[in-house]
Amino acid sequence: MKRRQTPTKSAVLDVLTKAGKAMSQNAIEQEIPIDINRATIYRVLNRFCDDGILHKVIAEDGKQYFALCDRCDDTHKQHQHYHFKCTVCETLECLPSEVSFSIPQGYVVENVNCVLTGVCKNCA
Amino acid sequence: MKRRQTPTKSAVLDVLTKAGKAMSQNAIEQEIPIDINRATIYRVLNRFCDDGILHKVIAEDGKQYFALCDRCDDTHKQHQHYHFKCTVCETLECLPSEVSFSIPQGYVVENVNCVLTGVCKNCA
DNA sequence: ATAATATTGCAAGGCTGTCGCATTAATATA
DNA sequence: TATATTAATGCGACAGCCTTGCAATATTAT
Q: So which residues are the signal peptide here (chains A, B) (predicted)?
């Protein structure tokens, strides 16, 4: 299935690029200049994830956040860095700190989701 | 507000103790012998969290899982250990591995939520 | 026993995310 | 340029998770 260029895709990518942080579907919809259906935004976001352009983080509110991370299109497919969710400004950003853990024998890790919650530099 | 002893509270604690792992409201409700309202289970679980008896983990499905962890009533209030969610048996368990990270200056971390997803020892 | 109030059940509602289906629009082909 | 192919979208609907208000119940203290 070959991807097509659409206004929706560019608009979503544009918002995420300018934001420089992870955003929820809702936040993206509010920031986007054109009117795009909710389901469509989700589909666009998930396609971007499939294509390795975005990565998805689950925050402590149980919601999905999507980020365009500069360190993501590297060798490892997994996004093994920490994320920080500020309870004040609701921002979710990627941290430079890499996740490292030891796992008991026999376990196979396929995905990593690490979110620190608190107050960010700007809001402190 | 002083807590009261109720059959619901004991039943919930009992299930979680026997399970020895983190469980969702739904899973708890299914395991519980008596019939308890969904909202009530949530209220009981959240009260236990407030009282420091349980801790809550958000998994990659966006759902809340509650665990009675043996290492939790220690000095630190935060539950800074990794969790492992098996995609096969759907189990979410606490790992012995402690979470360690470096955080940029000015950030205040109040909570940690780290979940590894994959296949556990039993299902591999 | 009685009062005070924490806990519960019920119903309802909000929010998130997904899906099927008809329609539209982007790309390839003639 | 016109046409065919099919990816992408909008709409509506739905399921699931979690919370909340309110009246009824049950636990604890007096």
A: none
The fold of the B7-118 domain, in CATH, is Arc Repressor Mutant, subunit A (1.10.10)
User: What 8-state DSSP symbol labels residue A22?
Assistant: B
Nearest CA among A44, A49, A11, A53 for reference residue A30: A11
pTM flag (> 0.90): yes
A121 Cβ contacts chain C strand, under 7 Å = no
Distance CA B113, CA B57 (A): 6
Residue B48's pLDDT band (cuts 50, 70, 90): very high
Chain B touched by A81 (CB under 8 Å): no
- In angstroms, the separation between the Cα of residue B66 and the nearest Cα of chain A is 13
Q: What is the pLDDT of residues A72-109, one digit of tens each?
A: 655 445 558 899 999 998 899 999 877 888 899 999 99
Contacts (Cβ under 8 Å, ≥6 apart) of B116: A101, A103, A107, A109, A111, A112, A113, B82, B83, B84, B85, B95
